Amino acid sequence: MFSQDGRIKRELRTVEAMTRIYCRDHHGNAPTPCPRCSELIEYAAGRLGGCPYGAEKPVCSRCPVHCYKPAMRDRIRAVMRHAGPQMAYRHPVLAFYHIVDGYRNPPAAEKTAGKGLKKSLKGFRQRTDPG
Questions:
Q1: What was the pLDDT predicted at 112?
Q2: What's the number of domains the chain is made of?
Q3: What CA–CA distance (Å, rounded) separates 29 from 50?
Q4: Between 20 and 30 A from 32 (CA), which of 22, 113, 117, 129?
Q5: How far apart are CA 57 and CA 51, in angstroms?
Q6: pLDDT digits (tens, 9 = 90+) for 63-112
Q7: Which of 77, 91, 112 is nearest to 21 (CA)?
Q8: What is d(CA 73, CA 89) in angstroms, rounded to the nearest whole number?
Q9: What is the C-alpha separation between 77 and 61, in angstroms, rounded?
Q10: How far apart are CA 82 and CA 122, in angstroms?
């Protein structure tokens, strides 16, 4: 249906759209997000770009691997909690695909890979964590 790049790009567009809605409503910044919200978008882009599941990834809330740092996870949750209900009428196509993607499960083979997946995730975290 979608290539890996297409799937990841669409998910990033969804995160960007939600963050822009949140930023506009909370920080009064339109059309460009404030530096703090831009930082969140860049962080999400880095995480999506290095996701070990690739195009087969489920939405982050259903993923067994939480690759966001706790502070950033709290920030993205606040954004999604606020902007999620508005997505249906602001960005209906992205909202539709996000709902459909919500039914994805992680690939079974990778889920049971055990140490192999843990090692690749450890390497992923080391490559993507700035500090």
A1: 42
A2: 1
A3: 29
A4: 129
A5: 8
A6: 888 889 999 999 999 999 999 999 999 999 999 998 888 887 777 644 44
A7: 91
A8: 25
A9: 9
A10: 31
Selection from 12, 26, 14 nearest residue 80 by Cα: 14
To 5 degrees, how large is the angle CA 113–CA 115–CA 102? Answer: 50
Q: Which region, left, alpha or beta, applies to residue 107 given φ > 0 means left and ψ of -120 to 50 means alpha?
A: beta
Q: List, as one string, the DSSP characters of 2-50.
A: --HHHHHHHHHHHHHHHHHHHHHHHH---SSPPHHHHHHHHHHHHHHHT
Question: Which residues fall within 8 angstroms of residue 68, CB to CB, at 6 or more apart?
Answer: 43, 47, 60, 76
Domain of residue 59: give its range. Answer: 4-128
Structure tokens that stand for 10 in this block: 């669409």
Q: Which residues, 6+ apart, have CB-to-CB distance to 45 below 8 Å?
A: 12, 15
d(CA 85, CA 39): 23
Is the preceding omega at residue 31 within 30 degrees of 0, hence cis?
Answer: yes
> Is the pTM for the entire model greater than 0.85?
no
For residue 37, give both structure tokens: 């919200």
Q: How far apart are CA 110 and CA 52, in angstroms?
A: 9
